[in-house]
Design brief:
The chain is an alpha+beta fold. It contains 9 helices and 9 strands.
């Protein structure tokens, strides 16, 4: 007989609850094509020196558990506590670096897969997450071609966690914290169309320095984060994708969830989830009031 611990129970029962309660996925795009005012970031990996300041700035600005500067031989993977990191590779005596975070796709697969609209693509560029709507189905994790969203597995009322493009800072006219922290100009924030044009100009002006490709221009329909590199980016673990947007519907995503604990057990898990999530949100609001008072 299969034995399930609490993590496995959450993985399975919450997903099957969605099958019982929900129909086809909601579309939550703010637009049908890239907005002319959409923000983006140009990542020039030839300028990255592996200082990890972007990593530290993200941790600090989002109140994530802070750690010591990572070892390039064992860089942290993106997870619920790590929203930005560096992919690393050693070639001879040289270390190669490429920043990793949510790509904030123009046509995000996580948004098409979310059955309750907890993830939404804004016209300004960020793919944002509403914890009040999320019931933990994890379809976004199945759908994302970049493997970005992660789950707070060890929390009894977990949320999906990922880079939010510092949407609150963008709303105030500020660049993302990681961009402000970069000391070497490896990250440039601005209008996506303008950054794309600049990326192509940099490549044309130094053809021996750069690979003739802007990663993120067309991959999966395009992303808000654009990369120019001096090496094939797939060496750093970035997926090779065609230009078609990745679209995933709820029924297809359900194929990744084992058909276990159906019926009453799944429904009860959903009810438990709802009330624990409500209590968690209430506690957060109380803490904020106490902090402001």
């Amino acid at each position: 007989m299969m034995k399930l611990n609490r993590r496995d129970f959450l993985k399975v029962s919450v997903g099957t609850t969605g099958l019982l309660l929900l129909g086809s996925p909601k579309q939550a795009y703010a637009h049908d094509s890239p907005s002319q005012s959409s923000w983006g970031v140009l990542v020039d990996t030839t300028k990255c020196v592996g200082c990890w300041w972007c990593y530290a700035a993200c941790k600090h600005s989002h109140h994530l558990p802070e750690t010591i500067q990572p070892d390039p031989e064992n860089p942290p993977e993106l997870n619920s506590d790590v929203w930005t990191t560096l992919a690393t590779r050693q070639e001879g005596n040289q270390w190669l670096y490429a920043k990793r975070q949510c790509m904030h796709c123009v046509y995000p697969a996580c948004v098409t897969a979310c059955p309750v609209g907890a993830l939404q693509k804004t016209a300004e560029g960020p793919v944002i997450y509403d914890a009040n709507k999320c019931f933990g189905c994890r379809y976004c994790m199945v759908a994302c071609p970049f493997g970005v969203p992660d789950f707070e597995w060890e929390d009894p009322t977990p949320w999906v966690r990922k880079c939010d493009f510092c949407a609150d800072r963008l709303a105030e006219g500020l660049a993302p914290s990681c961009v402000d922290a970069c000391p070497n100009g490896a990250l440039k924030f601005g209008n996506r169309d303008e950054l794309l044009a600049e990326a192509k100009e940099r490549i044309a002006g130094a053809s021996k320095k750069y690979v003739d490709h802007v990663y993120g221009e067309k991959e999966a329909g395009g992303t808000s984060w654009l990369y120019i590199t001096g090496f094939p980016i797939d060496k750093m673990g970035f997926p090779s994708l065609d230009s078609e947007p990745v679209t995933v519907n709820t029924q297809r995503a359900m194929g990744a969830v084992p058909p276990v604990l159906l019926g009453v057990a799944a429904t009860m898990a959903g009810i438990y989830w709802f009330y624990k999530r409500r209590d968690k949100m209430s506690q957060i609001k109380t803490n904020k009031k106490e902090a402001s008072g």
